[in-house]
Amino acid sequence: MPILDDFLTKALKGQTAEYGHFVIKIYLRVLLLIFGKASPYLVQGLWYAARGKKEERIEAFLKGSKVWAEDVRKITKANLVFFNELKPPVKGHFIFLNHVNEIDFPYDCYAIGRPYLANQVIKKTLFAYWWMVAMGSLVFDNSRAMSIAVSIKNLIAGLATTSYIVYPEGHNSYSEDILPIKKGMVKIAFDQKIPIYLALKSGVTSYQTHRKGNTVGYMEVGFLNPNDFSKYEDLQSHLHELMVTKKKELDVFVKKEIEKG
C-alpha cells in the first residue's frame, strides 16, 4: 500500500517501508502473546491491580514484557550477548541507555527489565500507553511549567519503589553513534540528586537492514553520582564522553561475537 509505505517512511525518519512493516509485525505480536505465552502474567497483573498490590502488578507486567522480548529474539534468530553482568538497581535511580530504534524497546525489556520514563507522546498509542503504565512506567509531561512540576513530584514518589529507564539522547538515533545528550533528564538528575546507572547497547541498527541473524550486545558502564559535579553541564558533558568511549568498546566486542559465527 503506497499510502501506508509513505506514512511509515516519514514516521520512521526515512527508514524503509520494509523496516516499517517489520516494526508493525513485531508490535502486533504483543496481542498474540497476551492470549498465549504471556497470558499468565497478564492475569496475574490484573489480579494484583484489582487488589491494589502495585509492586506485584508491576513485576507481573515486566515479566510479560520479557516474554515478548524473548519471542522477538527467537523469531528473528538473534544472538543476545553481554559484555559484562548487568545489575540495574531496583529503585531510586535513573537507568540511562542509548536510544536506537523501535526494536530496542523489547531488548531493553529483556536486558534491563525496569519501567520507563516516557514522554507524553506515548498517550497517543492507547494500548502501548496502557501496557507501559501497567508495567510501572511514568509519563513525564514537559508541555507546560505546571505539568513539569507535577511530573517531577510523581517521579520522586515513583523512585521510592522503582528505577526508570531513561533515554538521555531524547529520541531514536537510527545509528550506532551516540547523539548529543539533552538537557532535560540530566538537569533533573542533577537538581534532584538522582543517581544514574549507565548501560549501553550495540547492534540494534542491524534490524534496519536485516530481519534475522543479528547480534545485539549490552554493557554495564556503572554509576554516576550527581553530587560529584558542580553543575549539570559538567555531568552532561562527562556522561556524553563516557557513553561515546564505552560504546566504541562495546561495538568491538559485538563485532568479535559476530566474527565467531
Describe this structure in words.
- By secondary structure, this protein is an alpha/beta fold.
- Helix content is 51%, strand content 13%.
- The protein is built from 9 helices and 7 strands, in the order ααααββαβαβαβαββα.
- The protein has helices spanning 2-11, 17-34, 39-50, 54-75, 104-111, 126-134, 145-159, 183-192, 232-260, and strands spanning 79-82, 94-96, 117-119, 138-140, 164-166, 196-202, 215-224.
- The strands form 2 sheets. The chain has a 5-stranded mixed β-sheet with strand order 1-7-6-2-5. The chain has a two-stranded parallel sheet with strand order 3-4.
- Helix 6 links the parallel strand 3 (117-119) and strand 4 (138-140).
- Helix 1 packs across helix 2 and helix 2 (17-34) packs across helix 4.
- The protein starts with a helix and ends with a helix.
- The mean pLDDT is 90.
